[in-house]
Amino acid sequence: MNAPLSSQAQAELNPLHLELAARLRRETQGEVLFERGARGRYSTDASIYQIEPVGVLIPRTSADASTALNVCRELSVPVLARGGGTSQCGQTVGAALVIDNSKYLNRVLDFDLAAMTVTVEPGIVLDHLNAWLKPHGVWFPVDVSTSAQCTLGGMAGNNSCGSRSIAYGNMVHNVLSIDALLLDGTAATFAETSRMGDAPPRIRALMETLQDIAARERAEIERMVPNVLRRVGGYNLDIFHPQSSRPYTADGQVNLAHMLVGSEGTLAYTRSITLKLSPLPAAKALGVVNFPTFYQAMDSARHIVALGPCAVELVDKTMIDLARSNPAFRPVIEKALIGEPEAILLVEFAGESQDEQLASLAKLVELMGDLGLPGSVVEMPEAAAQKALWDVRKAGLNIMMSMRGDGKPVSFIEDCAVPLEHLAEYTSQLTDVFSKHGTKGTWYAHASVGTLHVRPILDMRRDGAAKMRAIAEEAGELVRRYKGAFSGEHGDGLVRSEWVAWQFGPQLTRAFEAIKDAFDPDRLMNPGKIVRSTKMDDRTLFRFKPDYRVIPLTPVLDWSAWNVNNDPASDTVSDAGTGGDPAQGLAKAVEMCNNNGHCRKFDAGTMCPSYRVTRDEQHLTRGRANTLRLALSGQLGQDAFTSDEMRATMDLCVSCKGCKRDCPTGIDMARMKIEFMSQWRQKRGLALKDKLIATLPRWAPWAARFSFLFNLRNTLPGAAWLSERLLGFSSKRTLPTWRNDVFTDRAASVDAETADVVLFADTFNNYFESENARAALAVLQAAGYRVHVARPATDDAEPNRPLCCGRTYLSAGMVDHAKAEARRVVNALQPFVARGVPIVGLEPSCLLSLRDEFLVMGLGDDAQALSQQAYLFEEFLASELKAGRLDLKLNPLPQKHALLHGHCHQKAFDAVKPVQQILALIPELKVELIESSCCGMAGSFGYEASHYETSMKMAELSLLPAVRKADADTVLVADGTSCRHQIADGSQKEGCLPAVHVACVLQRALIVS
Ligand SMILES: Cc1cc2nc3c(=O)[nH]c(=O)nc-3n(C[C@H](O)[C@H](O)[C@H](O)COP(=O)(O)OP(=O)(O)OC[C@H]3O[C@@H](n4cnc5c(N)ncnc54)[C@H](O)[C@@H]3O)c2cc1C
Ligand code: SF4
Ligand code: SF4
């Protein structure tokens, strides 16, 4: 059910667009989004452009999409189909009705294993399709880097290509047919012309027109279409007279679906696609060739390709160094290196037999000897080592994209393709072009097909547009000299459509216009792309338009690390705080999001739980970052930062910090939410429930003293209902039970002077589950440590109130109060830190805030020093184990299986492995990690009535199904307080064991004989 349009939207939209919205609401079942925030969120893709759409339709059925096309034609409103919105060239932005297929139109419609085909709706994500296909031993092999988020409709729209395109080809070589709708409502299955005999008259006429154009232009096609494997610009008119050495079809037939592939939604709307599948290769071998010069790497590529590999991928020196500088990746990359190479090529062989792949690897070694580089190949026959190295290659790109400052790697000549024999000259000369314009670029990717990715660093707010054009023109000259393709992978869009005429000449450009008009005489399908385009450097279409301004704002946290300038020529970054951001770094941090859409992934990582359950752009890291950016730059109207729209956008962010870790550019939405909450609270105040939660550390001592009274909420009939009505706590849950055996009241503690470990008990483990803190104390003591229990400093204004990290205040945006709590902690622990005594805590979200938020609250050097010595219980034990100092005698448990759920913040700080390491010390215990995202409870989030459903959906994604399978032989381990509660609330199986903190598991292993 669509909510009524707000008065603001009604005032902003013109009568035509209001009518469009009204008709879509009436005539479709889809979600109709015409509010300013939604339009803003759909105004960008992963390019440098930003154009506000007319509105957005999220169709529930293909019939909805069909109706929308009809309405748009009647009202003369342009239409723009969209999948993941990850395009780099601006083909997925426009002043049109955006039809987002990714939420509902994502099913597998038909699968024929014998025929090796699958038919899918356009919104299905590639990784989801391949996960579905895997049990059948087949896959769809166009393995683009954005496989976790891009859709098959978008891949077909762009004629996408993967790392292994040398073996499998581009999209166009793997699409068998497309069921499409023209704007006039004509539906047809575009396939081999021989199968289209019964097509409607409109389509038969269209086919004749296309054949006529192709026949007329034959000589020009042969003259102008480059003969390279990678060429995705313009329309595929050469399906009638193929120019590439890789044929479009095995039997030479013309397949009209291939005219739609790469057409960027400008010709027709794709309802479903039938794809050709490939067998999953049974065996793979990887050879890493080390080169003393970049030029030699490029020069060798053509010889290596002759050996028949399925991938030859470049990693240059900059990327090697980036990987080396990361402690997690260093050991992996080091294993692939011989000395100090200037570049490496990852050469993969794949097929049915391992022996054959090993034989190919041996040939590679021999070849490199013949080329004068004996001993340059690191052989990697094992799957685990191969996967680790491919992951490093991906991560290197991510680090490059996380560059701070206004200069950013910009994609506009990123995928020019040249024949392999010219690759060395081309890359060398393009590098010279970059330095001439005071910039540089890092090279990587598909050496196998002459498509090397490179993004020169440009400042698109200042002189970037002029430099972009100059570099593009000079790169174009090189591409022409070497008979390459200007657009070899990512399409035309806004950045390259003007280059279509340059590439194909005026005559073929006119032919392309005729093709467009034959399909779409109204010119309403994604206009301005491929033909009749705007200029690439039209700054009015940029995300950072000439009038882009950030509204001055004083953030409550320190964002100065983002407030810098970078200079690619000298490779320097200015000092923190000198970047000139009127929002003191907050705006620049938000602007880091480049819309690559990785937050739409569903893999083992955490990011982004709210998207995983809603599939809404609004409840996605990218949607939030875009909304914040638009608000901070005044593009969503006055006071947008504290608007209801912004509140709704941030509402389902569970502050899991998944994005902090998984987002390639390091968007830290949890921290940004603190800023938002702070501004919101100052302007709009807090609800009573939020105040109660925030101030919990203050009243906790009283609640513990009168625990029987406070716990009546869970036991007295009607109390839960009342707490929902009056306060907003979900009546479907019990609240944590107050205990009067508060840990810090009773714990035996050695004197501060003699301590060799300090145990920091957080508010939750102190008042609700003090057995965890007692277990930790017992384990540490059993291991021989003299443990001091952290208490307030003697000069603390409230010496009797236990320490607290201030997390509950942070969540409510009460940053001053959080700071006050943090200061108490820093003061109390400073003497221990000064003596090098480790500080050990139990609750991940609390302890890890000492290493995270404490550092951006202006607490000075003491907080810095504390962060270096603050450990989770399991991290401390694991580090002692590594240092050979851990002396802990553990016995087998009755259970032989431990099922572990990692807290989101543990995952964000790479602190799950230590739990696994420590549990593995228990004899006979098999430890298994649940591949889960956020549990959904997330502090107080899941306790709130308004979030209950979302919270449970998050838990049901993977955690609860895994937990329900646990049997009596299993011990469930979860270190997060809220995770344990969610498991208890959600598992609800007779005899299902409660989850426990790792400290309790170890304590049991101490005493079991
Ligand atoms: C970091 C990064 C890495 C990338 N790596 C690669 C790579 O390795 N290889 C590669 O080829 N590309 C790559 N890309 C580009 C992009 O991710 C791919 O082209 C991807 O396939 C686009 O899919 P999407 O679902 O996001 O499409 P969108 O961007 O949503 O749409 C792409 C085009 O298809 C059209 N379209 C979408 N659905 C339909 C439909 N139903 N009917 C008609 N037209 C439709 C759209 O209008 C648009 O013109 C990369 C991008 C980024 C940001
Ligand atoms: S939030 Fe991060 S992962 Fe998501 S689109 Fe932006 S940069 Fe990519
Ligand atoms: S903190 Fe978590 S919920 Fe919030 S945007 Fe990041 S990944 Fe999504």
Structural summary, described in words:
The chain is 41% helix and 12% strand. The radius of gyration is 30 Å and the shape is globular. The chain has 1009 residues and is of the alpha/beta class. It is built from 44 helices and 28 strands. It starts with 6 loop residues before the first helix and ends with a helix. Residues 593-599, 621-622, 625, 659, 663-665, 667 line the site of one iron/sulfur cluster. Residues 607-610, 621, 624, 653-659, 669-670 line the site of one iron/sulfur cluster (SF4).
Question: Would you kindly provide a brief summary of this structure?
Answer:
The chain is an alpha/beta fold and 1009 residues long. It contains 44 helices and 28 strands.
What's the helical proportion of residues?
40-55%
- The whole-number mean of residue pLDDT values reads 95
Bound molecules: flavin-adenine dinucleotide, iron/sulfur cluster
| Count of DSSP strands | 28
